[in-house]
């Protein structure tokens, strides 16, 4: 027996979303049918010291090898934290609550 239950997001969330269902479907199709183009475009969302020229280098036969953006150079800390500081520096970045909240 198979059961699928879905929950639609509230209209306020839909209105402020960065993507809609049609855009998501187009992006998904491109990721499957044209992965090199798709991932090259996604790489533009990051700040690179050296933008990669080799986007995807994969081999699944015999010697498994998976490499993404292998000749690119970036600073992960900058991409995850620093570049967001100009507009988010005064916002809480992390809330930690240990296992024993007392």
Task: Describe the overall structure.
By secondary structure, the protein is of the alpha+beta class. The chain has 5 helices and 4 strands, in the order H-H-H-E-E-E-E-H-H. It has helices at residues 11-16, 21-33, 35-43, 76-80, 85-88; strands at residues 48-50, 56-59, 65-68, 73-74. Strand 2 (56-59) and strand 3 (65-68) form a beta hairpin. The longest helix is centred in the N-terminal third of the chain and has 13 residues, at 21-33.
CA-atom Rg in angstroms: 19 Å
SS-based class: alpha+beta
In N-to-C order, the SSE pattern is HHHEEEEHH
Compute the number of helices.
Answer: 5
The stretches of 5 or more residues where confidence is low (pLDDT under 50) are: none
Major sheet: size, sense and barrel closure?
2 strands, antiparallel
**Overall average pLDDT:** 93
**Shape, principal axes of CA atoms:** extended
In percent, how much strand structure appears in the residues? 5-15%
DSSP E strands, number = 4
Helix content: 25-40%
Number of domains: 1
Widest β-sheet, arrangement of strands: 1-4
């Amino acid at each position: 027996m198979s059961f699928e239950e879905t929950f639609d997001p509230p209209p306020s969330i839909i209105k402020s979303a960065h993507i809609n269902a049609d855009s998501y479907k187009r992006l998904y199709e491109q990721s499957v049918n044209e992965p090199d183009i798709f991932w090259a475009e996604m790489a533009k969302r990051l700040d690179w010291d050296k933008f990669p020229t080799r986007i995807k280098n994969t081999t699944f036969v015999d010697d498994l090898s998976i490499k993404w953006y292998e000749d690119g150079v970036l600073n992960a800390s900058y991409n995850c934290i620093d570049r967001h500081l100009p507009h988010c520096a005064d916002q809480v970045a992390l809330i930690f609550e240990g296992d024993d909240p007392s």
